[in-house]
Structures are given as structure tokens and as C-alpha cells.
Amino acid sequence: MEVALSQLWRYGSAVLLVAIASFLILLASDSTIAANPWLIGFAPVILSARYGGLGPGLLATVLMGVACAYSSPQSLTSSGAIAPNDLVEWSVFALEGILISALMRLHTVPSQHQRGPRSKLELRTILDNAPVGLYVVGSSNHEFMNQHLCAWLGLTSEQILGNGWIDSIHPEDREWVIRASTESLTAGQPFEAEYRILDQSGTLYWILDRAVPVQDEAGQVQFFQGSCVDITARKQAEERLQSVAQQLQERTAELSASRAHMQALLDYTPAIIYIIDVDGYMRFANAEWYRIFGPLFGNPIEGQNLRDFLPPEAAAVFFQENEEIFASAKVMTFENDMTLPDGVHTFLRIKFPLQDASGEVYAFCGVSLDITERKQGEEALRQSEERFRSLSACSPLGIFLTDTQGNCTYTNPSWQAIAGLTFEAALGEGWAQAIHPEDRERVAAYWFYCASSGQAYSDEFRFQRRETVCWVHSRSSPLFADNGQLMGHVGTVEDITERKQASEQLQALTRQLQAQNEQLTEVSRLKSEFLTNMSHELRTPLTSILGFSSVLLQKNFGALNPKQEQYLSLIHSSGDHLLALINDLLDLAKIEAGKLELDFEELNLAALCQAALEMVEVRALSKQQQLSQELPLACEFILGDRQRILQVLLNYLSNAIKFTPAGGTITLKTQVVTDVELQNFNVLEVEEEAALQGASTSMFVGLSVSDTGIGIPVEDQHLLFQTFQQVDGATDRRHGGTGLGLALTKRLVELHGGKVSFTSTCGVGSTFSAWFPLPESNVEPI
Question: Are the CB atoms for 672 and 628 separated by under 8 Å?
Fold first, then answer.
């Protein structure tokens, strides 16, 4: 009696634990538990087996499996059976529950009188022959694994007790599997994961690894019991299913796209397309049909019979056409007129039968084109031909027609008057008799060549009339039929005698101007030589004036009163200005005379820019202006004349200081661009006579000076870089200058093979740039 009560208590407890777990599953709001109730299902199994033994554990496994399977409506089919996917989960759960119960019995019966050696050996035999891998995990290493797991991995139990199991995990999964299992072991939570392993031969397997914690009477986790199920076949099936689904999706997309293309073709084609079955019912009409006939016959038209919306006479014609097509089973063409709201239209209709797989005609497809405009064009062409003959009779130009061989078939009265021939005399090859004897052979040969080859003809020659000779310009073009066949030529003859005479006079005038240009060139050369000589002659006394005034200002010969010092300073500054003007004139004269030579050398760009800034620093500080240089430099070295490039920078910087108000900013920067990118800048056209000495290159380095000055009005920007031109040309202008600086700068840059550019906005400032050719090997892009 006592044994029966004990068994009733153990089995009743198992049922109670299952009922509690099922109730928790139904109340669970956690999406993870709701989607995977098997995680909670292991708890009643472990507790029943731990405290009740093998029988209650197996009972809890069966009852919990049924409860989990029926806990979600998605797990059942329409007939109430378990869905195939959940049936696999149920089977794995049942097998794992049985094995857990057996393992729990193995670990929970400590005394020898309760379990003899034979029963323990039998249990071990059952576990080793289980069709899944089984293991027990303690605090660190595997404490137990069955023979199925060892045979699966190709390792001994000793190897697995080391790092054999970890080494068997696929390298791509190893890190996260170790992390997830460690977290579960530490937290005492069930562990479940799908991952890949590799056996000793390198064969890859997918496994479903599940482990649950086992607690002692005090509720402390003693070890984990787990199972590994081979799910490789399922994973392969999923991959194949996914591949099939992807292919199906792609095929569906292709079919949808093809259908969309066909629908777009039908909707946007300018032709009317419709389908009528053999009984006269409309089965399809495209957008063009509805656009033209929809206002007349309504919408939709599908399902209506021809007799329902067409006049009886028109319907009878359609049915007659369908009978002819049905009998012949061929494509047939029809043409008819139809009255629409905007007038009478002519339609060209092509109809053909549609046949099923057995060859039976089940419908007729029609394609109609509105050829009203073509018909109107044919009528217009006929009228145009009439007008052509009427107009050609009174045209001031000579008009002629020929056949394909070039023989004349028609001339208008103007042609006859210009050529001095009658209509009859010009027919055939008679027109050639009007050509001047000296031009006849050449003109006739060229004309017949163009006529026979179907080419356009254009030539100037002379007509020899009885008493006079006239120049004419003759043109002709081939005439083609609609099918592309050559029909002949149509041409004109224009009397250009007066134009020829004017052209001869123009040529004589041109020769006269060329002679005058040569004289002006010589005068310019003499002017340049004069300026060169005069500049040298003026430099000598001017140098003495500057030297003596500088010595006197230094007060080496005694003190000066304020008036004397003021006058000497004026003499010295005026001399400097005059010397700069003379130097600019001398440089400009040398350039124009082609005598200015450049001393090319490799220049350090950073040092060159710094030297230019230092030379104008005092003037900028006097106006409280800020000088800056943008770094890093675009490149380290350039090839050029140091003195001349420095002169270019000083001209740009001096102008920026001059035209920038006090407190403004002036920036010197560099950049490297390609010849294509250079077209985006406002580059000035290079002087034709400029000697481009730079090496041919596709790269340019730009030295740019930007300021926040007054800017230059758009209407005055054309004056920039012109000799002796200034934007402020008034006699009382605020800013001095001779108008030579920018002109000289442009010529010096062009002598280096470079170009200049600028941008300017009134009230914002200006940027002036000099672009020098740069060998590509010297480019260091930023």
C-alpha cells in the first residue's frame, strides 16, 4: 500500500508539473516563449525524472510534448493534426525527454542496492546506441558523451574531454557558439542553437544542440544535460526550398515584367488593337481604341457584341470580313472611312485569325492605323506638284529637272533666259551647249558623275550667250520615290555675275589691306625698337636721380627741413613710379619684338610664394590688411623664370592691396587641375603671337590671388589685361596705374606656356589666377 501511494504521488506530481507549465505557456506574453514553448517544456521533464524517476519523467515527456504541440493554432493543420514542421520539433523533444529521464535516473540513484551494476551497464548501452549525440556538461569540460557522439565526430572520449568539441565547431560559428553556451551555463538557463561542425574527414554537418540545467535539492545547478541532433538534411532541404523560392520569385518577377512590358506596348502603341471572338463579341481593346472610339461607343467595351454598338451596315461589313478571314486563315488588309466627332478619318485595318493549340480559330485580332494624314499628304503632294509648275514658271531662279542619267526633261522660263536656250534646245544633253567652251568639259563630267551616282551637285561656271558671258551657280538634289528609288534630279541656276565682280573687287581690296598690315607690322617693330632704346636712355639719368634723392633723404650731407624732405620724397617716389613704368614698357616691347628670353629653372613653389608675400607685407600692413597663404601647396616644384613668375605674383598682389579697402583680406593659394578642368575657369584667349615655350602637358598649376576688394563691374571686365586700359579711366581716378601691369602679366604667363583667368563680383572681391604647365611626374594631388 505504501509503494502504491508513493507511485501515485510521483506520477501525480509529474501530471501537476505539466499542468503548471502548460498554464504558464498559455499566459506567456514573451514572443520568444510563445514561438518556442519547448524551452519551458523541459522543466517538468527534468523535475519529474529527478524526483520521481524514469517512469514519471517519461510520462511528463509525453504529456508536455502534446501540450506544446497544441499550445499554438499555427502548430495545427486544418484537420487538427500537428503541422509537419512542428512534428519534427515534437519528435526531437520526445526523444530528448526520454534520454534526459534516463540520464537523470543514472545520476539520481546513488546507492548500490537501488541500482546494480547490470542496470547501470544496460542504461549506458541504451545511451551509447541512441540515434543522437548525448552529453553531460559540468563546470568546464564534457563529463559524459555517448558513443554516437564520439563516432559522429571521429574522436575518442578523451579527445572530446579536451578541446576536441570546440575544435570541431565550424570556424565561422565557433566564437558565437562558445559565447552563447558560456552565457547559458553561467546563468543556469536552457541552451538551444543550430550550428555547423566538421568531423575528422572535413565533412560538414548541421546540428541542433539543446541542453537543460539539472539542479539539486537546494536548487543549485549541478550540470547540463544535452543532445545533438543531425539536422543536415533539414538544412539542405531548407536551402533547396529557399533556392526554389528565389527562382520562383525571380520567374514571377520576370513574368510580371513581361506582362507589364506587353501591357505598356499595347497601351502606348499609336495603333488601334482589338480582339473579337468568332461570335462578334469584343474581348479586348487597347488604350488607343478607347481614346478614339471610347467617346462614341462607351467604356468598357469588352463583352459587347458588334451589333450592340455599330450601325447595322458597319457591323455587317465586319462580320463579312471575319468570314473571309475564317475561310482563308490568312492576314487580310482593309481600308475604310469613318466619321468621328472631328471629321472623316481613313483607317488602314489589318486583321488576322487567332488559333488555339488544335488549330481552331477562336477569335480575330485587328490592328488599325489612322492614315488620314497620309491621305491628306498624298493629296497635298498632288496639289504641290501643280503649284510647283505654276511657281517655277514665274520664279526668278532658273529651275530644271532631269532623269536619272542627267538628261534634261524640264526648264522654266528663267533658266532659258539665263542660258540663252529655248525649252526644246535644252532637252536631253542640249543644255550643255550653253556652257562656256572653257568650262564645258569639266562641268559636264562632274554633272553626269553626280547624276549617275545620285549625289547632290553644286558648282560655279560660265554660260556663253551670243553677246555676253555670265557667271552662274548651279545646285541640284536627287529626287527619290517613297520606296527609296531614284527618280531624277531637281536643280536651280542663279546668275551670280554681279557677285563675282564684287568678289574680284574684294580680293583686290584684301591684297591692298595685306600690304598695309605689313607696313603696320614694320611700324610696330620700329616702335618697339624705339621704346627699347628710349627706355635704356631714360634709365640712366633716372637711376642717378633716384640714387641722389635716396642719399639726400638719408641725411648723409646734413639735416633737411620738412619742406626739403617732402620734396625729395616726392622726387624719389615719382622716380620709382617712372622707373617701374619704363621697366614695364621695356618688357612689353621686348615681348612684342620677340626678344624677351626666359631663364627656366626648377623653382620651389613655397619659397617663391613666401618671397612675394614678404615683398608686399609692408604695404598691406599700412592698410591693416591681412595676408594669408593656403597650405598645403598643390605641388613642391615648378619650372619657370623666377624673376618673371615673381613679377606676375607681385602684379596680382599689388593690385589686390590697391583695390581692397582697409581691414580686408588677401589670400594666395595654389591648385593643380587638368586641361579639361581648366575649361571651367574664366580663361582668357591666348594671343596668337605669344610664344608658348612650356612643355606640352595636360596638367597645370594655378597661382591665385583672391581679395575682398571693390570688385569689377561686368560691363568693364573686357578692359582687363588690355594694354594701357584701366577700369577707372577718369582723369581724377582714386587709384593710380598705367594699365600695363595685367597686360604684361598675361604676356609673361603665356611665354611660360600658361594661361590667365579671373572672376570678380562688385562688392565681394576678385580672384586673379596664373596657370603654368606642370610636368605630370611633379604632381602631388592633395
Answer: no
Question: What is the Cα–Cα distance from 196 to 522, expressed in whole angstroms?
Answer: 94
Residue (of 432, 413, 433) closest to 423 by Cα position: 413
Ramachandran area for residue 64 (φ above 0: left; ψ -120 to 50: alpha; else beta)? alpha
> What residues contact 435, with CB distance under 8 A and at least 6 apart?
443, 444, 461, 462, 463, 464
Name the nearest CA neighbour of 648 among 579, 743, 535, 766.
743
- Measured CA distances, 657 to 107, 215, 505, 666 (Å): 97, 90, 55, 8
| Whole-number Cα distances in Å, 670 to 130, 627, 734, 769 | 80, 15, 31, 9
Q: Which helix (H) or strand (E) holds 540?
A: helix 497-553
Q: Which tens digit of pLDDT belongs to each residue from 602-623?
A: 988 888 898 888 888 888 888 8
Phi and psi angles of residue 209, each rounded to the nearest 5 degrees, phi first = -105, 120
Angle CA(721)–CA(668)–CA(652) in degrees, nearest 5? 25
3-state secondary structure 243-289: HHHHHHHHHHHHHHHHHHHHHHHHHHCCCEEEEEECCCEEEEECHHH
Q: Which residues of 259-270 are buried (b: 16+ CB within 10 A; e: fewer)?
A: eeeeeeebeeee
The torsion of the CA quartet 400, 403, 407, 412, rounded to 10 degrees, works out to -20
777 closest CA partner among 603, 611, 638: 638
Please tell me the pTM assigned to this model. 0.36
- Three-state SS string over 118-167 comes to HHHHHHHHHHHCCCCEEEEECCCCEEEECHHHHHHHCCCHHHHHHHHHHH
User: What is the predicted pLDDT for the residue at 171?
Assistant: 92
- Give, rounded to a whole angstrom, the gap between the first and last alpha carbons of the chain: 97
Q: Which residues of the chain have pLDDT under 50?
A: 29, 109-117, 141-142, 689-695, 729-733, 781-782
Distances (CA, A) of 434 to 406, 421, 470, 496, 571: 16, 7, 11, 16, 84
Q: Is 470 helix (H, G, I), strand (E, B) or coil?
A: strand
H helix runs in 629-757, sequence order: 642-659, 675-678, 741-751
Strand pairing category for 665-674 and 626-629: parallel
φ and ψ at 696, to 5 degrees? Answer: -65, 125
